[in-house]
Amino acid sequence: MSTISSHLRRWTYLTHRWCGVAGCLLMALWFASGVVMLFVGYPKLTPWDRLKALPPLTGADALRPSQALAGRDVSRLVLNAASGQARYILYLRDGTLSSVDAVSGQRLDSFDAQAARRAAGLFMPAAGSDYLGTVNEDRWTHSGGLNAHRPLHMVQMDDPAGTLLYVSSHTGEVVMQAPRLQRLWNFAGAWLHWLYLFKNRSSDPLWTWTVIVLSAGCVLVACSGIVVGLWRWRFARPYKSGSHSPFLPGWMRWHHILGLGFAAITLTWIFSGLMSMNPLNAFSPSQRPDLAGYAGASPGERHLDASPRDLLLALEQDDFHAVELEWKNLAGEPFVLARDANDRTRIVTAERARLSVMRQWPLARLEQAASVLLPAPVSGAGLMHVYDAYYYRRDPEAMMGGSERKLPVLKLSFGDVGATRVYIDVASGQVALSADRAQRIGRWLFSFLHSWDLRFMLAAGWLREATLIVLSLGGFCLSLTGIVIGCRRLKRKMSHWHLRQS
Questions:
Q1: Which of 468, 477, 470 has the alpha carbon at shortest distance from 257?
Q2: Per-residue model confidence as pLDDT tens digits over 408-419
Q3: Is the pTM of this model over 0.90?
Q4: How many domains are contained in the chain?
């Protein structure tokens, strides 16, 4: 038994010693880049920024949606003027996009450099622009949500922020913005933190498994370090030097003390970073809500065939000035979801051949439509006016900062195997979030442990940020001492090897 114990102890020491050489370097980069990410997020175009830049719709002489569809089977149908002229955007079943001029009915499946500059000018009207060419994917456009828009036109704006805009070649609308300072800080922030230097495309299994393996290795380094640190620390009876650590003053003692002092937060952050990769699909839902069944029909099958002119007139009577219209269905009932430049919504339905404008759906209608989302009964329903632990909003800098997460929201609990919870935005009727048991566990193991994003924590503001910075600095210093110790040990090993060779 003692032999097994001595072997286990020896391998624990060796694992921490040699895996820590590379692990501490990686962890130092993660701690430093994590601090940057508190204040500078990865480039994104939020829904409210996109809508704020859209020109208002007039609807004059615009075709009816049935004329724009021309029998095509689409999953989404949207009308806006992002490219400078009113046009329908058709989201086809095969995942591709097509545009139709809302006045002439001409198909506009490709937008050139001139159209890209025009769209960029509408997005930022006070700035000049310089067309840089097209790119299929670069370090700022890895998001899978951009796949249907590729290739992307790049337009450099002459604004004080030096914003780089990416314009869809299929819809002629701006789909990403990346200011110069944000891009520069990202090299020390999200781009470095997420190891995007190893990522070549939006879906990259090699990158995924690289991050998983490296994160798992660093978890092993942290765990072995905690065990070794506790073995060497004398809690009751100090060493002859009077210290509870056996090491002389210097890098080793600092590494020992910092390792025990910041062990919990180091292990927590490295482990939660590993969980963010959803290893082996541990947090994937057992079944997803049936959104097609919830809608009851696609716009290509059934839609409210009112002219944009009539829709906009009805909305203006409610003092609502739309910049975008989207044709949708709820349990087979066609309606139009209107959005304005302030990211507010209105619902337009047809009742007795007259258009009716609503600010939100009746709860009973939403609950009835939502009953088909999962093959299980609804076990609970309630209207939420405040955020909970799963449905909440983050600042734009955060990874989930682009999610709207509006209130009030209808929360439904289902009696399925995963005890799924579904959150429906009552102002649009859209499913804003769904989370079964596995996804909720993932929320605690990743988002909570990694970001400290409970409501009272986020409300603490600068105090939360200051605490995270101090803990990150502690983890960085711990990693730095490990790098120094590792480099010195490698240098001694190399010197001994050279002496034996000579």
A1: 477
A2: 999 999 999 999
A3: yes
A4: 2
